[in-house]
C-alpha cells in the first residue's frame, strides 16, 4: 500500500513535466525549414487552434498546443520542433513578459484568407510570393481585374501585388521586348480584358483597379506589394484623371505638362517623385534606385530595423528573422529613394551604404500596406525567361521569411501601436 501511494505521488508530480506544448524554434541553429514552419502555423490556425508568436524569442518562434496531429505534420514537412512541458512554457512566457526583455507573445487567432492579384494565364516571370506560399503549403486564391472591380476583395484578409504595372504602360518593356511574342500577346490580352470590362484604355482599367485596392486597404485590408507593383500602384493613384501614357501604350499622346498635375496627397508611400517620360527607358519614376545603385553583388545586403516588441509589435512582427542582415536582390523596382518616402511611413529595411530603403510599411485608413523592393530574394538579378527559383534549395531564406511574416500578420490579435 505504501509503495502504491509513493508511485501515485511520483506520477502526480511528473504530470507537469509531460509535453503540453510544441515549440517551433526559428533561430538559425535549431530550424531546418524556416519557410515550412510558417505553413505549419497557418495549418494549425486553419483548425481553429490559436498559436502564440514569440517575437524576438529565438528568431520569432511559434508556441502551439501539443497534439499528435501537429507533431506528425511537422515530421511530414521536415519542420524542427521541440516538445516542452507546461512549466517550461510558463517559464518562456514569463521571461518574454519581463519588462527587461525586448520580447512579446502575440496571439494568432485565425488563418487569413489570401488573394494574389495576377493574370490567370502564365507570365514570362515568376512571382516570389506565390512560390513561397506554394512551398510553405499555404493556400491562396488568384484574383485579377474582374474580381477587383466587382468588389470581391472584401472576401479576403490579405492581398498580394507583384510584378504588375498599374499605369497602363505594360511594364515599360517596350524598348527591349516590343517585338517579342509574349509582349504582343500580353498587350492584346490586356486590351481585350479592358474592353470587356467597359474601358477604352488599359490605363483607365488599371487606374480603377488601383482605386478599388486603395479602398480595400482603407476599409481594413492588408496589402503586400513587391517589385514594380509598389511604385506603379502609387503612381496610378497620384495620376488619377491625368493621361501619362504615350501613343504606343494607349493610342494617343500623353497629356502636356502631366508632371505638374501629379497629386502626391493620393499616394500610400511616396511623394515628390518625378515620372520617367521616355517609353524607351525601363523605369517608371525617380522612386526606384536601380539605375543609381553603386554596390556590387557580393556586398549587397540590407539591415532590418530593431523595434520594441512590447511597444511596437506590428513592425516587430514584420521584421522577425534569424538574422538582422538580409541579402539584397534586384527587380524592375529594386529599392526606394529615401527622400521620396512619406514621413509617416516606416522604413523597416535599408541599405545605408547606398542610401536606399528596401522594406517599408504604413497605415492607410483602417488597413495596412507593406512594400518590398526587388523581385526574388534568392535570385539576385532575375531576367525574363530565367528558370524559377527552387525553394527547396533555400529553406531558411531570410528574404523569403519577410514575405511570410506579412502573410501571418493579419492573423494576429492587434494591440494599439504606442509610438
Automatic annotation (TrEMBL):
UniProt keyword annotations, A-Z: Signal
Superkingdom as given in the UniProt entry: Bacteria
Residues spanning the signal sequence: 1-19
Protein name per UniProt: Asparagine synthetase B
Native organism: Aureitalea marina
Amino acid at each position: 500500500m505504501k509503495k502504491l501511494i509513493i508511485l501515485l505521488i511520483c506520477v502526480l508530480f511528473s504530470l507537469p513535466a509531460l509535453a503540453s506544448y510544441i515549440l517551433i524554434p526559428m533561430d538559425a541553429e535549431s530550424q531546418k525549414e524556416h519557410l515550412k514552419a510558417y505553413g505549419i502555423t497557418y495549418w494549425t490556425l486553419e483548425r481553429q487552434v490559436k498559436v502564440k508568436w514569440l517575437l524576438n524569442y529565438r528568431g520569432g518562434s511559434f508556441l502551439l498546443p501539443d497534439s499528435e496531429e501537429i507533431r506528425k505534420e511537422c515530421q511530414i514537412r521536415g519542420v524542427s520542433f521541440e516538445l516542452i512541458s507546461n512549466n517550461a512554457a510558463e517559464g518562456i512566457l514569463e521571461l518574454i513578459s519581463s519588462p527587461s526583455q525586448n520580447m512579446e507573445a502575440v496571439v494568432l487567432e485565425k488563418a487569413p484568407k489570401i488573394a494574389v492579384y495576377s493574370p490567370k494565364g502564365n507570365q514570362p516571370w515568376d512571382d516570389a510570393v506565390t512560390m513561397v506560399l506554394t512551398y510553405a503549403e499555404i493556400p491562396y486564391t488568384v484574383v485579377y481585374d474582374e474580381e477587383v472591380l466587382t468588389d470581391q476583395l472584401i472576401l479576403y484578409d490579405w492581398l498580394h501585388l507583384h510584378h504588375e504595372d498599374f499605369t497602363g504602360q505594360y511594364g515599360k518593356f517596350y524598348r527591349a521586348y516590343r517585338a517579342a511574342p509574349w509582349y504582343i500577346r500580353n498587350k492584346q490580352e490586356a486590351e481585350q480584358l479592358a474592353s470587356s470590362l467597359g474601358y477604352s484604355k488599359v490605363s483607365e482599367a488599371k487606374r480603377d483597379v488601383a482605386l478599388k485596392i486603395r479602398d480595400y486597404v482603407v476599409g481594413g485590408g492588408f496589402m503586400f506589394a513587391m517589385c514594380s507593383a509598389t511604385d506603379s500602384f502609387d503612381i496610378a493613384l497620384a495620376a488619377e484623371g491625368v493621361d501619362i501614357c504615350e501613343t504606343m501604350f494607349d493610342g494617343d499622346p500623353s497629356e502636356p505638362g502631366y508632371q505638374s498635375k501629379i497629386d502626391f496627397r493620393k499616394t500610400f508611400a511616396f511623394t515628390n517623385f518625378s515620372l520617367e517620360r521616355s517609353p524607351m527607358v525601363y523605369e517608371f519614376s525617380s522612386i526606384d534606385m536601380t539605375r543609381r545603385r553603386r554596390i556590387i553583388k557580393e556586398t549587397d545586403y540590407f539591415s532590418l530595423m530593431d523595434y520594441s516588441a512590447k511597444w511596437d509589435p506590428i513592425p516587430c512582427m514584420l521584421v522577425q528573422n534569424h538574422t538582422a542582415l538580409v541579402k539584397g536582390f534586384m527587380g524592375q523596382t529594386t529599392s526606394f529613394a529615401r527622400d521620396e518616402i512619406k514621413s509617416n511611413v516606416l522604413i523597416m529595411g535599408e541599405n545605408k551604404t547606398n542610401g536606399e530603403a528596401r522594406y517599408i510599411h504604413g497605415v492607410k485608413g483602417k488597413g495596412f500596406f507593406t512594400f518590398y523592393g526587388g523581385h526574388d530574394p534568392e535570385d539576385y538579378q532575375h531576367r525574363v525567361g530565367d528558370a524559377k527559383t527552387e525553394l527547396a534549395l533555400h529553406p531558411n531564406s531570410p528574404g523569403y521569411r519577410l514575405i511570410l511574416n506579412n502573410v501571418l500578420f493579419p492573423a494576429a490579435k492587434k494591440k494599439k501601436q504606442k509610438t
